[in-house]
Amino acid sequence: MEKNVEISLLLSFYGKMLTDRQSDTIDLYYNEDLSLSEVGAELGISRQGVRDNLKRAEAILYDTEERLGLLHRFLGIKNKLLEIDRIIADIENSPESKLLSVDMKKQINKILTIVSEINDEEK
Fold this sequence. Notes:
Blueprint: H1 3-14, H2 20-31, H3 36-43, H4 47-68, H5 70-93, H6 102-122
Helix pairs in contact: 1-2, 1-4, 2-3, 2-4, 3-4, 5-6
């Protein structure tokens, strides 16, 4: 996974573990794609101060993920939901799908609804 995406996801999960300054620094640098100098100007600190804040904040985020593993679990669940979607699409696209009973088609639709609800909760 690209580092910018990973840090953004970690910030979503563990941002409250950071100081406001660290959180703002990470957000401006990774999410707003500002340079170290631009972040420094925005926050009123030196370029080196920005770099130090980033390194400390990243260490906290990675350490917290290593201990709790919430992002890892989240991504695992998301991948399994995608796999369920693919399996159901394969079932629906197979020639044998016409042989499925009405009850089986209703069950498939229930599964799709549940998967959709879980995906909507993530947003």
